[in-house]
Design a protein that fits this description.
alpha/beta, Phosphorylase Kinase, domain 1, Aminoglycoside 3'-phosphotransferase, Chain: A, domain 2, 3 domains, five-stranded antiparallel sheet, four-stranded parallel sheet, 17 helices
Length: 474
């Protein structure tokens, strides 16, 4: 990746190359800051996925849609350079500012762009170029329903008639696949895939798009678990979307609303499947932290709509949203009045040793990372740190760092749960390795991210050895 970056941007004077956190995919992203601007580089071994994204982007650009510009592509198509829209997403702004009129305006602008993508660009779209399937047909819907069944419903030992549920899934999937209007369906149109720059939305991560019922995208946005939009907002924004849609397509309002309710349900179930796989099985924190709101969404849907034709599914969902289940996934969350301050730091056992606790509380947690294979033993990584992508890749693929971190996070969670309940004010979490350069830096950053995602706690992060050296490793 470094050679591609320097080949494309070296003449602009590279200031920094910073890896970006992964979300739900295996793609690697880095932000390259130069003296003339900022750019994003994506590295992805799935060449077909890259090509679809690049081709979709070129097509959408013809319609002046809010998508990034692809500046350069590597000869082997495994990397591409694109414009940088910054760090703010529609979801992050919603969580930061709450349900203000300014935030609502961003949702409306996003829906305006969605209608144009679905209808204006979707009219002449070549669906034979789609990545996974050309259409969200009965088989695709059935796949989503089974995804929910295997990765969420069955993980919770809910008792149900398996044969009857399968029959109901087949009926429901047939209904969903025939819903109109059908145009370009983004497939994952949610707040994390809508970047906000200068009060304007920009879309990313649409390579999974296909032909399908376009109301699915509206359901994905308005019922996103983490955003937890108020019921009144959902209704108002759906009405706003319909106004924009009416400029392109004629529809029966009552039928459209009925179809929308079914698509909301299918989306909610698909999302729970993702939470089960990525969260419960793969232990990815931000998916686990979304489960309570995902279940709340299903409970809200059950209170608004009926499932008379699907009694087994209905009872399964009632059982899933029981008070016992909701209590199981109840998450403690910090807010503006939370007194707890968390310091997460990396240090060197060789140079300085275990740091003292200035708060006077005795030091908190100290995790020794030296049992994890040291990237510093290998020449390619000696002058890099735990924030550099090659080191991150090495730690995640060649060591047991994931197991180490999971154990550390579970231990810390016990204290954070207790400290939030009891109103404690300070917690220090320290990670040490030989030089305070690779393993401890990676772990400290990962722990801070974990606390933000699980508890909404923004930790102060200090990399003692690296900050003393000015992040220069000779």
């Amino acid at each position: 990746m470094n050679s591609f970056i320097h080949q494309q941007l070296g003449a602009q004077g590279i200031v920094s190359i910073l890896p970006l956190a992964k979300a739900g995919s295996d793609r690697n992203y880095v932000r390259v800051v130069t003296q003339q601007g900022s750019f994003i580089v994506c590295e992805n071994k799935n060449i077909r996925e890259n090509e679809v994204f690049i081709n979709f982007t070129a097509y959408f650009k013809q319609y002046n849609l809010p998508v990034p510009e692809i500046i350069a592509v590597s000869p082997d198509r495994s990397m591409y350079l694109q414009t940088d829209f910054g760090n703010e997403t529609l979801l992050s702004i919603t969580l930061k500012h709450g349900y203000t009129e300014a935030v609502k305006s961003l949702y409306k602008k996003s829906l305006d762009g969605l209608v144009e993508m679905q209808c204006k660009a979707g009219e002449s779209f070549d669906y034979s170029t789609c990545l996974y399937a050309q259409q969200f047909d009965q088989q695709m819907v059935m796949g989503d329903l089974n995804y929910f069944k295997y990765y969420f419903l069955d993980l919770h030992s809910i008792v149900y008639n398996k044969h009857q549920l399968l029959t109901e899934f087949e009926t429901l999937s047939k209904e969903i696949s025939t819903i109109t209007p059908q145009q370009f369906m983004f497939r994952d149109f949610q707040g994390r895939n809508i970047m906000i720059q200068k009060d304007a939305p920009y879309f990313i991560d649409y390579q999974g798009g296909m032909k399908g019922p376009i109301l699915y995208d509206v359901a994905s946005l308005l019922w996103q678990a983490k955003a937890a939009l108020p019921v009144e907002w959902k209704a108002e924004l759906f009405d706003y979307y319909k106004q924009g849609l009416s400029k392109y397509i004629q529809f029966d309002d009552m039928q459209l609303s009925q179809d929308y309710s079914k698509l909301v349900l299918v989306r909610l179930l698909q999302v729970l499947g993702a939470y089960g796989l990525r969260g419960i099985i793969e232990k990815r924190t931000h998916f686990i932290s979304s489960i309570p709101q995902g279940l709340t969404n299903v409970s809200t849907w059950l209170s608004m709509y009926t499932l008379e034709k699907y009694p087994v599914l209905h009872q399964a969902l009632v059982n899933l949203t029981s008070s016992d289940m909701m209590e199981k996934y109840k998450q403690r969350q910090a807010n503006s009045e939370t007194p707890l301050k968390v310091l997460v730091q990396s240090f060197s056992y060789k140079k300085g040793g275990i740091p003292t606790d200035a708060s006077g509380n005795g030091g908190g947690f100290v995790f020794d990372c030296r049992g994890v294979l040291n990237p510093g033993r290998f020449e390619p990584y000696k002058k890099l740190t735990g924030r550099d992508q090659p080191v991150i890749d090495f730690l995640e693929s060649e060591t047991r760092i994931a197991e180490f971190l999971q154990a550390a996070q579970e231990a810390v969670s016990i204290s954070v749960d207790d400290y939030l309940d009891r109103g404690f004010e300070n917690l220090m979490i320290s990670f040490g390795c030989t030089g305070g350069q690779h393993r401890s830096v990676y772990c400290a950053d990962a722990m801070a991210k974990f606390l933000q995602e699980k508890y909404n706690l923004t930790a102060e992060v200090c990399h003692i050895q690296q900050e003393l050296k000015g992040w220069i490793n000779e």
